[in-house]
C-alpha cells in the first residue's frame, strides 16, 4: 500500500496489530516496510516462523523484528508460533548455500530448516491457535 495511504488509515487507530511471517530471520519485508512507518501507536505483533518457537534461534528473530519499531511507539505484546515450511523454501536455501559456501549464516539456517521441515507440518495447529487466542484475550483484557 502507498505509504501516505497507509499512514492516513492507521492514524484513525490507537492500537495496531500486525501479523507477519518470518522471512530471512525477521518479519517479512512487507510487514517491516509498514512497521517502519508507524509512529506514536500501541503495537502488538503476531508472527509465524518455520522454526519451533522454543528453538534458541527464535530469540534473534524476535529481537530483529522488534528493533524496527520506532521509539515513539509502545510495544504491548508479541506472539509467535510455528508455521509450515514449504519444501521449496528448503530447496531454494540449498541452492543459495551452494552458491555462497562461505556464508556460514545461510548454512546454519539451512540446517535449522532441514531439521524443522517435518516438525513444521500442520502448524499453526489447533493448540497454536488456542494459545494465540489466549494471548490476545489477556492482552485486550489488560487494556480495559
Ligand atoms: C522466502 C522464505 C524465507 C523464509 N525464511 C525463514 C526464516 O528465516 N526463518 C524461519 O523460521 N522461517 C522462514 N521461512 C518459513 C516461513 O516463516 C513459514 O513458512 C511461514 O511462517 C508459514 O506460515 P503459515 O503456515 O502461517 O503460512 C521462510 C519462508 C520463505 C518462503
Percent range for β-strand residues: 15-25%
Query: How many distinct folded domains?
Result: 2
CATH superfamily of the largest domain: Flavodoxin domain
Named CATH architecture of the largest domain: 3-Layer(aba) Sandwich
Assembly classification: single chain
Q: What percent of the residues sit in helical stretches (DSSP H or I)? A: 40-55%
**What is the alpha-carbon Rg in Å?**
17 Å
Q: Could you spell the SSE succession in H and E letters? A: HEEHEHEHHH
Q: State the strand order across the main sheet.
A: 2-1-3-4
Low-confidence stretches: none
Chain-averaged pLDDT: 94
The fold-level CATH name of the largest domain is Rossmann fold
Query: Could you say which structural class the secondary elements and strand pairing correspond to?
Result: alpha/beta
How many strand elements? Answer: 4
Question: Ions, cofactors, ligands: which are bound?
Answer: flavin mononucleotide
What's a quick, concise take on this entry?
51% of the residues lie in helices and 19% in strands. The chain has 144 residues and is an alpha/beta fold.
Could you characterize the architecture of this molecule?
This protein is of the alpha/beta class and about 140 residues long. The protein has 2 domains: about 5-85 and about 125-144, Flavodoxin domain (Rossmann fold); about 85-120, no CATH class. The chain is built from 6 helices and 4 strands, in the order αββαβαβααα. Strands 2-1-3-4 form a 4-stranded mixed beta sheet. β3 (about 40-50), α3 and β4 form a beta-alpha-beta unit. α4 (about 85-100) runs antiparallel to α5. The longest helix has 18 residues, at about 125-144. The radius of gyration is 17 Å and the shape is globular. The model has no long low-confidence stretch (mean pLDDT about 95). Bound molecules: flavin mononucleotide. Flavin mononucleotide binds near residues 21, 49, 50, 84 and 109.
Amino acid at each position: 500500500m502507498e505509504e501516505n495511504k497507509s499512514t492516513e488509515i492507521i492514524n484513525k487507530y490507537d492500537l495496531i496489530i500486525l501479523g507477519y511471517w518470518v522471512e530471512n530471520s525477521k518479519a517479512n519485508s512487507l510487514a517491516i516496510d509498514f512497521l517502519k512507518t508507524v509512529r506514536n501507536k500501541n503495537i502488538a505483533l503476531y508472527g509465524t516462523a518455520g522454526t519451533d518457537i522454543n528453538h534458541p534461534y527464535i530469540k534473534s528473530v524476535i529481537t530483529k523484528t522488534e528493533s524496527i519499531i520506532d521509539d515513539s511507539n509502545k510495544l504491548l505484546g508479541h506472539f509467535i508460533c510455528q508455521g509450515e515450511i514449504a519444501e521449496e523454501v528448503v530447496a531454494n536455501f540449498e541452492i543459495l548455500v551452494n552458491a555462497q559456501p562461505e556464508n556460514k549464516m545461510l548454512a546454519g539456517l539451512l540446517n535449522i530448516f532441514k531439521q524443522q521441515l517435518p516438525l513444521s507440518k500442520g502448524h499453526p495447529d489447533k493448540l497454536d491457535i488456542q494459545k494465540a487466542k489466549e494471548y490476545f484475550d489477556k492482552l485486550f483484557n489488560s487494556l480495559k
